[in-house]
Amino acid sequence: MSENNTGVDVAIRRVDPEVPIPAYGHPGDAGCDLVTTVAAELEPGERAVLPTGISIALPEGYAAFVHPRSGLAARCGIALVNAPGTVDAGYRGEIKVIVVNLDPRESVRFERFDRIAQLVVQRVEQVRFREVAQLPDSARAEGGFGSTGGHAAVAGSGAGQQGGNGYASVVSDREGQ
Ligand SMILES: O=c1ccn([C@H]2C[C@H](O)[C@@H](COP(=O)(O)OP(=O)(O)OP(=O)(O)O)O2)c(=O)[nH]1
Ligand SMILES: [Mg+2]
User: Fold this and answer.
1) CA–CA distances in Å: residue 30 to residues 1, 6, 19, 111, 156
2) What's this model's pTM, rounded to 2 decimal places?
3) Which CATH code fits 11-123?
4) Is the peptide bond before 84 cis (omega within 30 degrees of 0)?
């Protein structure tokens, strides 16, 4: 593990006194790994909220994002339900990681202090929304959701209700949830 002598100071408190302070694996890495402080076994399709043993105080104008680890995703099918999880600058609680086992057959076991996710700290802006009757023109305009083409075929996508872009559309009437 390399020392991080540059960058932004972030106050960290160990909720679990034995947890290692997160560190960047290599100079220039974007994320530092988070561990679980509890052992857990996830059956296929099961999810869990795992504690990391740390809380932090980010400076205003920053947020931290809890990202998946690609090795766990590729080897075991572990994903984060809410990826990337957002840690607000004002949050002083313990950072938690919402993992899910997407492997259709194998269960996955984590031991205490296994690395389960990575934390990426970034500057963020708060904006002022200024309502207008018409938005300024742009090259993309309202194109989205595959408008540039070249996407993979979806098996069975011929059936069901289709939007103008060829994707089945799911319309929810559950507003404001
Ligand atoms: O993966 C995550 C996501 C969030 N949090 C913490 C930090 C964050 O500041 C707080 C709230 O997260 P979020 O805003 O995503 O959740 P919410 O469901 O909107 O809760 P709230 O109403 O408290 O904002 O929970 C985590 O520890 N891990
Ligand atoms: Mg929120």
Assistant:
1) 14, 13, 21, 25, 39
2) 0.88
3) 2.70.40.10
4) yes
In the β-sheet with 85-87, what is the strand arrangement from edge to edge?
31-35, 115-123, 62-67, 85-87
The atom number, within ligand 1, closest to the CA of 94 reads 27
Whether 14 is in the pocket of ligand 1, judged by its Cβ within 6 Å, is no
pLDDT tens-place string over residues 107-130 = 999 999 999 999 999 999 999 999
Is the distance from the beta carbon of residue 89 to the nearest atom of ligand 1 less than 6 Å? no
Q: What is the rounded average pLDDT of the residues 138-149?
A: 96
Q: Which helix or strand (DSSP H or E) is residue 151 part of?
A: none
Instruction: Give me the pLDDT at residue 38, please.
Output: 98
**Atom 13 of ligand 1: nearest residue by CA position:** 86
Q: Is the CB of 47 under 6 A from ligand 1?
A: no
Q: Are strands 96-101 and 47-51 parallel, antiparallel or unpaired?
A: antiparallel
Give me the pLDDT at residue 131, please.
98
**Closest ligand 1 atom, CA of 82?**
1
